[in-house]
Amino acid sequence: MSDSPLGIIEQLLKDEDFGTRLLEKSEERPFELLFVGVGEDAKKRGYTMQIHYVNDVASAVGGQDQPDDAYILQFFLVFPFLINPEQRAPVGRAILAINRILPVGAFGFSEQEGTPYYQYNLASSDRLKDKKVLLEIMSIMGFFTSEFSPKFEAISEGTTTCDAMFEELAKGGIVFPPITPPKL
Predict the structure, then answer these.
(1) Predicted TM-score (pTM) above 0.70
(2) CATH code of the domain covering residue 159
């Protein structure tokens, strides 16, 4: 076990029976990276979350933390499917809408590859050692991933549409409030 910041997080997650793999600093990668298995979808495809400190990546490329800087812990969950190139605009529309109701983080996808993901950056005054915060973030991300990644994939496959997804959500009581501020 490593006593590095990500090593401590790894141990917290191992204590909760998560499968983990810590890649320590090396010449090829001058920052730590933690991989965490967070379950499978209905098609038995595994989801793996990547966790690292943005500060460490910045330091590896020459940046320097200042004493008052926050530590930023990034949680990055890549989905195990690709977005069909012909369906990237409708999936993007769905993602933008869903991002409005997420309590933490945001969905997105790589335009070049069509790889969908869910990302959250936690800023704190020190490196995270709070198991409750860590587990809550992972729980929220897991819930919203299991809820929406199948919908994004269905839009990508053409088996549903973005508008049909909105109608389904509305039937379940999820509506998107207007964002235009009222006139004062």
Answers:
(1) yes
(2) 3.30.1460.10
Query: Is residue 152 included in any domain, yes or no?
Result: yes
Q: What is the strand order of the sheet 20-23 is part of?
A: 20-23, 33-40, 46-53, 71-78, 116-124, 106-109
- 128: three-class secondary structure by DSSP: coil
- Structurally, how many domains does the chain consist of? 1
Amino acid at 1: M
Between the CA of residue 86 and those of 42, 158, 165, what are the distances in Å?
A: 24, 9, 18
Q: How far apart are the first and last CA of the chain?
A: 58
Nearest to 21 by CA among 39, 3, 33, 38: 33
Can you tell me the distance from the alpha carbon of 27 to that of 158, in angstroms, rounded to the nearest whole number?
Answer: 44
**What's the Cα-to-Cα distance from 118 to each of 27, 94, 147, rounded to whole Å?**
28, 14, 12
For residue range 61-113, list pLDDT tens digits in order.
Answer: 665 655 567 889 999 999 999 999 999 999 999 999 999 999 999 999 998 99
Beta carbons within 8 Å of 95's beta carbon, 6+ residues apart = 107, 108, 109, 116, 152
Residue count of the chain, please give it.
184
d(CA 51, CA 117) in angstroms, rounded, equals 13
In terms of residue numbers, what domain contains 90?
5-171
